[in-house]
Amino acid sequence: MAVLQVFMVLILNSISHEINRCSYFHHATPTFSNSRTFIMESSLKSLNLDGQFNFKDIHHAAGDFGNRYHFLPVAILYPKTVSDISSTIKHVFNMGPASELTIAARGHGHSLQGQAQAHRGIVINMESLRGKKMHVHTGELPYIDVSGGELWINILHETLKYGFAPKSWTDYLHLTVGGTLSHAGISGQAFRHGPQIDNVYELEVVTGKGEVFVCSEKQNADLFYGVLGGLGQFGIITRAKISLEPAPRKAKWIRVLYSDFYSFTKDQEHLIALEDTVDYIEGFVIINKTGFINNWRSSFNPRDPHQASQFISDGRTLYCLEMAKYFDLEDTDAMNKMDNLLSKLDCIQQTYFLSEVSYVDFLDRVHLSEKKLREKGLWDVPHPWLNLLVPRRSINDFAEEVFGKILTDNNNGPILIYPVNQLRWNNKTSLITPKEDVFYLILDFCGRTHLGVKQYLPHYGTREGWRAHFGTKWEDFARRKSTYDPLAILAPGQRIFQKAVPFHDTAHHMIQHSQDVWK
Length: 519
Hints:
Elements lengths: L4 E8 L13 E3 L5 H12 L6 E3 L14 E3 L3 E4 L3 H13 L8 E4 L15 E4 L9 E3 L5 E5 L4 H9 L3 E3 L10 H5 L8 H4 L6 E8 L4 E5 L4 H7 L7 E12 L3 E9 L2 H13 L6 E8 L4 H5 L4 E2 L2 H6 L6 E11 L4 H11 L5 E11 H5 L1 H11 L9 E7 L3 H12 L8 E7 L16 E3 L4 H5 L4 E3 L6 H8 L3 H11 L22 H11 L2
Parallel strand pairs: 1-21, 2-4, 5-7, 6-7
Antiparallel strand pairs: 1-19, 3-5, 8-9, 9-13, 10-13, 11-12, 11-13, 14-17, 14-18, 15-17, 16-18, 19-21, 19-22, 20-21
Helix pairs in contact: 16-17
Keywords: FAD, Flavoprotein, Oxidoreductase, Signal
Family: Belongs to the oxygen-dependent FAD-linked oxidoreductase family.
Protein name: cytokinin dehydrogenase
């Protein structure tokens, strides 16, 4: 059976603090008249809520991890209950299309281009819902029932108390459940378990009409699949039941280097095709960097210290295969098989580095980097970031153009690249991937050369861009918007639909109308 693979490529260009005030920063401040502001605030204050609105301390809601777009809301809602969210959305919906108010759900503020912002609208602080206790259910199909505002790092610690953990992760765990499930949630485990959206049993969702639905594969399935990977367009995720598996105690964390791209991707694809080998596979590109091997020594041990010390990286483009095998202390047989497998890789053997860490430390590894960057004042600089899903057939053309011709000098940020099996992914969700079994990740170069690439965490400035992104799924996407959020109240920061013009009932009219009102 053919294995469908897609390579995920993540490109981050860190901009230094000295030049981070350039023209691509978008600042916008609400411009309501005093009377309109008073009326709007009074109407929101009249709502009978358990939580509260804040109309003054709102500036932090106009920023995110990308730190490139800054749109001020008029208010932040700190909900205590799902009813608070429902009542607020119903209130705005009942104001009708004449009102400009929109609503954005904000988790941990890790968006890149203002997607969780609401210019002159309401931002809902989803972390305020975290007060509700998490419930772990063991049994034949174990799961955890959590708030949409809960952080994945907290879920990890809670489930480990019962000997379980979620199957699929993101690289950075200090993100909310609702945030990652609205996109996909992809990391090095996705080749085996699929993204996070494929490991959910049930959701509770508040639609753009303020209606609250419980949905799953068998109940309100259209909403369930639409919301998963739906960019927040059809509803706000307020609860989720997430699939679990028995948790290991430790991880053997390995890095090896390659000097040519073909061998690098060949070994990656070989590893993800095998059963019961590694549990995590990623990779990254190293362009003209010196001294990084010495930096690895703070966390990794070279298998042959003498050979590793002789390795020279200056002026070269190298490819690092990063993998991990989870294990318990008694799993000696599995670890021996792992060592035998790694000895057959077509890598630079003198660059074999490994480390044994706890399962928690491995999963939370990016948080350690965050702490170091915060100490240096580099966490809050702009983060131009691009995530692309590249078909297997195009990955070598991509590498030749991007790594061979465009990124030929030292790059300030990481470039991650790794394959996933699309056969493990559910194509009923709203997530858009290339039409191929294996895919990787890329730049604007792809659109110009027809490589069949799709953006992950997509961002487009035109309606043509969004229509091209969704392709044959556009009609379904537009129909769901018309059904669940007909006034386009939700997630305005995605810039897909414009508020204040009612959508028609039929999918055909909806599509025609959305073309006319697109931002």
